[in-house]
Design goal:
The strands form six sheets. This protein has a three-stranded antiparallel beta sheet with strand order 1-2-3, with no helix packed on it. It has a three-stranded antiparallel beta sheet with strand order 6-7-10, with no helix packed on it. Strands 13-14-15 form a three-stranded antiparallel beta sheet, with no helix packed on it. A hairpin with a 6-residue loop joins strand 2 and strand 3. 10% of the residues lie in helices and 26% in strands. It comes from Littorina saxatilis. Keywords: Signal.
Length: 213
């Protein structure tokens, strides 16, 4: 009789334990990864998962062992145009109209083209590796235009003899001869006349020095 009572009591205790266990919420085994405060990823990341930021510039993944989230941000190449656009979810800008440059004055120049601006020839070329590049994109390579020659050679006082060019000789007067140099400047020499040996010397027309009859 005693043995039967013990058996019944044991059954009752076991049933109570089973009921209590069934009433408890199930234990979870899901592991949660820890994201740094600077993470650009929204929501949770599971172990071994990889997710990208909304702008497409950062990839984050969760280490399965440490449950720590690591992120790596990509870098974009220098801009190759000044009218770039960025599509949603794409990290880097795109150039729908191709390579172009901007002059110091703000003029947009297509690849392989040039403009004359502020007396300079400004060229845009994607093939030239020395093209200057600013933070907003490539800049044009500008070279000053050749200076047109002056209208003629000039004296030291600034008087211009129109029509003369380097290598020309001119005679401002019968006693002076001038040579125009490569800088369009006149070098002049004045003839020194000997003292005449007569009292009735005269200067012939177009001559510099006096002569005796």
């Amino acid at each position: 009789m005693t043995s039967f009572r013990c058996t019944v009591a044991l059954v009752v205790v076991m049933a109570a334990i089973v009921l209590q266990a069934s009433a408890m919420p199930p234990m979870t085994t899901e592991r949660v990864c820890v994201k740094p405060d600077s993470s650009p990823i929204e929501g949770d990341i599971g172990p071994g998962q990889v997710r990208s930021s909304s702008d497409g510039c950062t990839d984050c993944w969760c280490d399965e062992n440490t449950l720590i989230v690591y992120c790596v941000s990509g870098s974009c190449p220098p801009r190759s145009c000044h009218d770039s656009v960025r599509k949603p979810g794409v990290c880097c800008d795109e150039c729908p109209n191709g390579y172009n440059c901007k002059t110091p004055g703000g003029t947009l120049v297509s690849d392989g083209q040039y403009v004359i601006e502020n007396n300079e020839n400004c060229t845009c070329s994607s093939e030239y590796t020395g093209m200057p590049t600013g933070s907003e994109g490539p800049q044009t390579m500008c070279i000053p235009l050749p200076t047109p020659p002056p209208p003629g050679c000039s004296h030291f006082n600034g008087t211009v003899v129109v029509g003369t060019k380097p290598g020309d000789f001119i005679h401002p007067d019968p006693c002076t001869i001038c040579l125009c140099n490569t800088l369009y400047k006149l070098w002049c020499c004045i003839e020194v006349c000997p003292r005449p040996e007569c009292r009735d010397a005269f200067i012939p027309q177009g001559q510099c020095c006096p002569q005796c009859p």
